[in-house]
Amino acid sequence: MGKPTVQSKSVKVPQKSATLCRRSHSGSHNLLFLWFYTDPWPDLTRTQKPISASDGITGDDCNTPPSSASNLLLDPPNSTFYDDPTLSYSIEEPMQDWDEKRREWLNHQPSFSAGGDDRVLVLTGSQPSPCKNPIGDHLLLRLFKNKVDYCRIHGYDIFYSNSFLHPKMRSYWAKLPLIRAAMVVHPEAEWIWWVDSDAVFTDMEFKLPLRRYKAHNMVVHGWPHLIYEKRSWVGVNAGVFLIRNCQWSMDFMNVWASMGPQSPNFAKWGRIQKSTFPDKMFPASDDQSALVYLLLKEREKWADKIYVEGEYYFQGLRRRYAEKLSGSYAALREPYLKKAGYGKGSWRRPFVTHFTGCQPCNGDHNPLYTGDSCWVGMERTLNFADNQVLRRYGYMRPNLLNSSHVSLLPFDFPAEEEDDDDVETGKISLSVV
């Protein structure tokens, strides 16, 4: 589910009286978000507010109650939207009154109200057929393990899809039908977090600052000046984003998907996108160009609900502790990292490293990548991330290019020494579209 071409750089449930969806359509916020360690352009002026503890990334509030706290055996006899025979899970069928439907269901499931604003469902996936690349299926397994580890640590649910829910919406378009269906299947989830299969969590302790986005319905990584001044199709990265489970999102995805291959106007949209974005070289309509197009052409309608994020950078702390306490110790380390800075040149490790264009499954990586740089970079980055998990179990991989060998750690092993050497893994293959 990657992109057709790339540019690379080394690189509660709301309370019952609450509004489920932030609906205002007239605002001045420059759109959308994500998580990268270095930026591909040097002239970025940060307009976002600095990340702080009040955003929910540190302290007691950053630990979502586990799903086991909910009463999974409760199935009240009350009628809900699930009893409607006309209900459709298809992205081609518009959803009406979703906020009301979802609120009614939640009223019948009070155990899901605790921690509802922080309840996240992570979605990812790959094609249904075996990979052509000999190591592709192994890489996909490791990439999925990385996401499962992150979700286990932070109490997030995760769903992996290897099906095309719409026969014509494949590749990078396949995410939209899946997100649409997941919103209906998981009314308890406040946020749906799409993460491309080729993206790696490289800071396993960092937690999403969800309070930062309380006034927004979508968060995507991007650069406003590339969207509005340069008119670049790489002004955002549509490979990793948050979208709120609400009517606004249902409406937005209908418009977004209308530029996809299931539409009779698919070829027309490809021509429009190519004429709109000077740096777009291929003719087909793609999800990322469609997203940037909507931000440009329907800015008044959507922009104030879409947050463009460009922060997120963190690094380690030495001490033994239980895996479930990772978030709490991430809070403790932050005061010592104020001098680390943000953006290009920061020595904080990346939150997510995205290997856009490497195509681990089919092996047809972008020609800008030379030799085996994709596979070497993926192995180093996956092992760098996995070391953060293995340390909780008392082990680590001393050589990031050797996945088979692990060593038992002494009690006083200094995490920073290994981090200082291997934080470069976040630079060697960090790709941004």
Automatic annotation (TrEMBL):
Q: Where is this region: Disordered?
A: 48-75
Membrane topology of this protein: Single-pass type II membrane protein
Instruction: Quote the biased-composition stretches of kind Polar residues, using this chain's numbering.
Output: 64-75
- Subcellular location per the Swiss-Prot or TrEMBL entry: Golgi apparatus membrane
The entry lists its GO molecular-function terms as:
galactosyltransferase activity
Q: Which Gene3D superfamilies match?
A: Spore Coat Polysaccharide Biosynthesis Protein SpsA, Chain A
Q: Sorted alphabetically, which InterPro entries does this protein's record hold?
A: Glyco_trans_34 (IPR008630), Nucleotide-diphossugar_trans (IPR029044)
UniProt keywords (A-Z) are: Glycoprotein, Glycosyltransferase, Golgi apparatus, Membrane, Signal-anchor, Transferase, Transmembrane, Transmembrane helix
Q: Which GO terms describe its cellular component?
A: endosome; Golgi membrane; trans-Golgi network
Pfam families, per this entry? Glyco_transf_34
Family the entry assigns: Belongs to the glycosyltransferase 34 family.
| The protein, known as | Galactosyl transferase GMA12/MNN10 family protein
The organism's taxonomy opens as: Eukaryota, Viridiplantae, Streptophyta, Embryophyta, Tracheophyta
